[in-house]
Amino acid sequence: MNYSAIKLHSVKNIETFYNEYDTLLKVSILQAIKSLVPFSIITKNNFIKFKLLPEYLKFKLSKLNDSTINAVEEKTPKIQVIVPLKIIFKTLNKYILIYCPLIELPYTDLQGNFILNGMKRGLVSKMVRQNGVYFNLRRKYGEDIYSAQLILNERSKYFIELFKEGIFIYNKFNKKINLINFLHFIGLNNSTISSISRYGTTEIFKNFYYFNSKEDIQELEKIKTLLNMLNPELNLKYLKNKLNFSRHLTSLKNSLISRTGNFLESSFAILGQDLISILDFLLDLKFKKRTLNDLDHFGNRKVESLGHLISAHLEYILPNKLFKILNLLFKSKFITSSLLIENLKESFNKNKISIKELLTVNPLIQYLEEVNSVSELMHKVRISSIGPGSLTQNQAGVAVREVRPSQLGKICILDTNEGPSSGLVVALASNARINKEGSIETLIHPNKKLRSYSKFLNSFEQESFLVSFENLIPRKQSFLNKYSTSITFEKGEIKSKTNISDTYYKINPSQLLSYTENLIPFLFYNDPTRCLMGARMQTQAVPLIYRNKPYILTGFESIIASKTSNLLRAYQEGVITKVTSYKIVLIDLFNREITYYLQKYKKTNQGTFIHQLPIVWPGERVLSGQLLTENQDISDSEFNIGNNLNVLYGSYYGYEYEDSLIISQKVLYKNIFTSIHFDIYEIKYSKYPIDTPEYSTLDLPKRTSYQKRHLDKLGIITEGSKVLDGDILISKISVSNLTLEDSPFSELIFSLFGTKLRQLQDKSISVPIGNSGRVIKTELFAVTNKATSTYGQNYLTLRVFVAKQRMLQIGDKLCGRHGNKGVISNIAEEAELPYNVMSQYPDIITGPLGVPSRMNLGQLFESLFGYNCVLKDKRLLINSLLNNNLNNNYTKTYLYTSLQSLKYYTGNKSLLNPYIPGKLLLRDGRTGYRLKGGAFMGTLYYSKLIHMVKDKVHYRTFGPYTEITQQPIKGRGKGGGQRFGEMEVWALEAFGASYTLRELLTSKSDDLISRNNLQEYLLNNTPLEPNYLPEALKLLIRELHGLSLNLEGFMVTDLLDGKLLPLNINY
């Protein structure tokens, strides 16, 4: 079989986001500063000129903690951009050179992540409209209104609309302005306008001039306002020379020609000619000489990442900051150069530009998903059309959300969010890349008969090529080739063509999907919704202690390993000299020593771990870019995060109800799905105010010795301790003296015990419910610099790392690669499960009804092919398009052929029964009798999801209550519980528990008199009085009184001869 046509390519698309940030540091900041120099100030004493020297920019990284290898321990590591400033004294004929910190940017690590407040964060790239001119048509009051939208940058958007009474230009900040008045203001008269325009001598232009003569002269002020908004820093004289607007449009010329035609005729377009050309284009649309292009064409969109976000913010804030500094200097009175330098440094330090606030509030800056390597990769290739300065969920219609032919090969056709953001948050396709302009390009491959190379094309360029989605295999009889059909993409449309020519390009169908979708074998046998579910669940699978590589491969497992950022790669070619568990030492070709430090059990944002292992040995020669390590979910350069298990599709005493799973005890005993998770507990000790210090101690009030059994003499947990729910990890108490020093009681206490009365408050940290584990590390940080602590009050920080070993239990969730997920309902003994003639027991039993109802048939093919691979001890790399490339039933034929060969390979003729093909004959493990009919059993690749039952189940015996109603408080984190509501009252009424119900509604609730009586009864053994009215009933009576409804109570007794005794319920 020829697999050369389905060769998988790995495109460098993730690196684009890293390179954009490098471009920001090296180019964008330099250009922004260059556009603002030089500045000069005239004072009473001197003429002083300030000259920024951007070519000598310096970058300074904030000092990291010496005890750590990476920057995670630093709360917010920063890069300071230091600008050299040259101060020239004209009158004194001398200059001074000083270095001023101007900007603080976030530090990005080698993986492209940046750290804010100690947490790794990533940016979801934003998709916006390309800069250019877009024409549109809308109807208003029965009239067709043609309009042109000019997008110059993110903040500069202008509109030109064509009405019956004239043509107007405006932006979103001011009212409409007549375009003819605008052209007159910038220096064009009527004759000049008529000579430039193709419609200058027509009747419609005369109408424009006629309506223009009626305009009020006050519109001149509106024009000045509009021009000033184009560039507030430049004066009106500069704008009148027509440089600003045309500078933007000139840079757009090349990209506009491909979208709207070459209607900008002059190679050096100026403002008036550009606007008149746009007016001619609108008139062409009005007279049906041109047609409107597709506004939602994918070529009209571009992707903006972190570098563009920061550079756009700097363009807006940098001039204001510099002008503010100069104004401060102008107002200050300095005489000597030393005083000037001091003022300058103080001004720069006060007005330092920090990007941290921008990144903290931006919704596109999110905590990095690090459940596994795939989840981090998919988070980095995610693209959103909603965000600041872009669309909202309510504004986006179907045209923006739907999949268009121009998106194929650039955006994954399956991967998107569910709910209101469906179609707005998407993922980059596997072989797509982002060019320097922000456009997304895809890779196409030439036919063998074409003497060409593979090339990257954007959406507009791709329309000029004939692209086929299938690999056409020519027949021996050439006349039969004209009957072969192929799905092609041509001129923006998808067609089914016969007798396709030899001059075509082809796209691998895997390019239509993203990375997680391409990890699903037999993808095209599944329903699209189940494929999306299976892809999402692979990003939620937790790394396991013991894992296996899948028997059925798609080829993208190795591509994931090449894309992930959690592996170490060689920067230079060289020889390995030393390998340990935590570092690798390499000597390169220039005899330089390079040390690579490995991450050992590092906690991720989601509580999983990153653990790297070396895969090289001393003396090995490595090449540049070669992998040096593997990690928790990548081994042998392949992504694997699960295990191969025998799966039986059948029934087991009803435990398979609603897609539940029955697990064999063998899976539990072998730790097949055992995972490790981390929790970090941190506490800070304050020394202010002085009269209430905080410290750790072993003498904790109201704590049992069992809870303190693992604490040392300082009240800190010892490393290696096995802690359970409720155990104390870090002790902390605050002591404050009572204000009773002069009272006789305090003197009595002092004379008896030798100490004063003190108030102790226990602030210790205990292990929450369901988070038992083992303490692996404790860290102690002494704060010596007041500036680094919160308000200068904390003098000590203590951090405890707890590792949790989560074994499989009832309630955990497992999933396959086809969206087939289930919750464990029973863990059965292996001897009680069915078995086949080869004495093989299933590891998992799942209900068979989930397959036809959800139409994910790919798991059936994976089961049988996987079972074949287990018995033959081999792995299978399967192409999902075997049927399309060869014939319609090739996969089914190949499957039956492999099962037939397996029957002879093992000598077991019952493996392929012609009456029940694909099924096996089983016996009951409890009775030994043969089960009726056959059952489907095979080998599937299963993973464990992060949705574990220990994180969700919560219980409490006692805890805090609310002050008013005395009900348990809400929230799992606060130790809350189930409130006793109406339905719980019904339950007690059904069981006749009247005394318990009365106690709950009165003494244990808001009956204040009964609560006091009960307290006296328990403490002083006083008589227990009957219950009174609770406060809730009294409140209800008052509310009824507000509605003019009176509520009275009566008592019926024999002592009054049948008369009613009124009860006073007023208070």
From TrEMBL:
Start and end of every DNA-directed RNA polymerase subunit 2 hybrid-binding domain? 570-973
Q: What is its EC number?
A: 2.7.7.6
Note the PROSITE patterns from the entry.
Answer: RNA_POL_BETA
The subcellular localization recorded is:
Plastid, Apicoplast
What would be an example GO MF term here? ribonucleoside binding
Q: Does the keyword Transferase apply?
A: yes
The alphabetical list of record keywords is: Apicoplast, DNA-directed RNA polymerase, Nucleotidyltransferase, Plastid, Transcription, Transferase
User: What Pfam families does the entry give?
Assistant: RNA_pol_Rpb2_2 (PF04561), RNA_pol_Rpb2_3 (PF04565), RNA_pol_Rpb2_6 (PF00562), RNA_pol_Rpb2_7 (PF04560)
Q: What class of enzyme is it?
A: transferase
- Gene Ontology CC annotation, any one: DNA-directed RNA polymerase complex
Spell out the reaction equation it catalyses: RNA(n) + a ribonucleoside 5'-triphosphate = RNA(n+1) + diphosphate
Output the GO biological process annotations, alphabetical, semicolon-separated. Answer: DNA-templated transcription
The RNA polymerase Rpb2 domain covers which part of the protein?
Answer: 129-304, 366-434, 976-1048
* Assembly information from the UniProt record: In plastids the minimal PEP RNA polymerase catalytic core is composed of four subunits: alpha, beta, beta', and beta''. When a (nuclear-encoded) sigma factor is associated with the core the holoenzyme is formed, which can initiate transcription.
So what does this one do?
A: DNA-dependent RNA polymerase catalyzes the transcription of DNA into RNA using the four ribonucleoside triphosphates as substrates.
Q: Which family does it belong to?
A: Belongs to the RNA polymerase beta chain family.
Stated name of the protein: DNA-directed RNA polymerase subunit beta
